[in-house]
Design a protein that fits this description.
The chain has 405 residues and is α/β, with parallel strands linked by helices. The protein is built from 11 helices and 14 strands.
Length: 405
């Protein structure tokens, strides 16, 4: 073959390669565009206001005291992987009878994809979540369903590098979740995320894009989702960061159907610190009336009653006074059952006081409280023995109920 013929052949092959180019989405997980998943909003419905008459303020007023179904549907490895049994209707009966009328369901989705290349959620898992939601709504309880930690794919990656990829996944997941649960009335609320880790305004901008994708995806499915109340998490669900960095809520096509969410584990020395750290020691006793006279180094030296009131007042000014309800999606202090004797009793009484005070102050501030119950009865925040469906921590339960009075 001479040189001219070779050039003509190469040119022909080049043209042919362009005409036959594969235009299917690139699903290489290393590619930030690998999130070009299929459209899961395949049957959008006309807006349906049936059973969706309450706006966010009216709906918040109906929720008196919330309970977290912690360490269950969000457990990595499966519903029972973190030490709790399968959620049962009997458990929800007990929660309802105890005085709660709202349930927050932390939920994972990423591990339940049947196909990671298409972000398709396993139908069996969608049905299971629907079943648990129905346990609650059948008992006239309000439900807050989220995408929880979920391996950290969203909340640990509020970065420009992950922004495009994560927005694709956020859209794909919420189109599927919202479509599958579209028939529920206003008793079901959706929440965009859990505790998105944010340190600065740049990361906050990325988080805002995730929230906007969530809102747009849910609304696009139509039906009752056209009016469903949606819950938007502040940066790290931290009150101070939310006050400083969260300027606006996402844009929504329907008015007055959003709430903001924060969490409260302050002081962490008392609520969750499991070993002394270089930045501070564990607190066993909270509230001046419950300070120890013998273990003075274990008394809280910050974050007590006045601190709680000031923190919740920030949320009043930022949101509630402007007609945006606030959800206290998680709060609670661990039971330090490694203590003994008088120290243990003082700690338990102090802990009960903390739970009653935070609940009461939240409600006084117009904030809807959801206690964090992880099912752990030792060194945890479990109220119920989920294996026997019995109340295991009546002191905490009584404190929460007293806080609502």
């Amino acid at each position: 073959m001479n040189k001219n013929s070779l050039f003509r052949l190469l040119a022909f092959l080049l043209i042919l390669s362009f005409s036959c180019e594969d235009t299917t989405p690139d699903t290489d997980p290393k590619d930030t565009n690998s999130g070009r998943y299929p459209d899961y909003n395949t049957n959008p419905l006309p807006p349906d206001p049936t059973g969706m008459t309450s706006n966010a303020v009216q709906l918040a007023a109906k929720m008196k005291l919330g309970w977290n179904m912690g360490n269950s549907l969000e457990a990595i490895g499966g519903e029972t992987a973190w030490g709790n049994p399968l959620v049962s209707a009997e458990l929800i009966d007990m929660v309802k009878q105890s005085g709660f009328n709202a349930v927050r369901i932390p939920c994972s989705w990423d591990q339940h994809m049947e196909n990671a290349q298409t972000a398709k959620i396993d139908q069996v898992w969608l049905d299971r979540v629907k079943e648990v939601v129905k346990y609650c709504t059948d008992r006239d309880m309000y439900v807050l369903l989220n995408i929880h930690w979920d391996g950290g794919w969203l909340e640990n990656n509020c970065t420009e590098a992950k922004k495009v990829e994560n927005n694709f996944k956020q859209k794909a997941f919420w189109e599927q979740i919202a479509t599958h649960l579209r028939e529920f009335d206003e008793h079901l609320l959706f929440a965009s995320a859990n505790e998105p880790n944010i340190e600065n305004s740049t990361q906050m901008s990325v988080l805002q894009s995730y929230h906007q994708t969530f809102v747009d995806a849910v609304r696009s499915t139509g039906g009752k989702n056209s009016y469903r109340v949606l819950v938007i998490q502040g940066p790290s669900t931290d009150i101070e960061k939310t006050n400083q960095l969260m300027g606006e809520l996402p844009v929504d096509e329907v008015d007055n159907r959003m709430m903001a969410e924060i969490h409260y584990y302050t002081p962490w020395n008392f609520c969750g610190l499991e070993a002394d750290a270089d930045w501070g020691k564990m607190f066993y006793y909270w509230g001046p009336d419950f300070h120890s006279t013998t273990e003075t180094d274990r008394n809280a030296n910050w974050g007590e009653e006045e601190f709680v009131a000031e923190a919740f007042h920030l949320m009043e000014s930022q949101f509630i006074e402007k007609g945006v309800p606030v959800i206290l999606g998680e709060y609670g202090a661990m039971k330090r059952t490694n203590l003994t004797g008088d120290a243990l009793q003082l700690h338990l009484n102090s802990r009960a006081y903390y739970h009653e005070f935070v609940t009461k102050k939240a409600i006084e501030s117009g904030i809807v409280p959801f206690f964090w119950d992880n099912g752990a009865l030792e060194l945890g925040t479990g109220i119920y023995d989920r294996f026997t469906n019995q109340i295991a921590d009546k002191q905490t339960l009584d404190a929460l109920i007293n806080g609502t009075k």
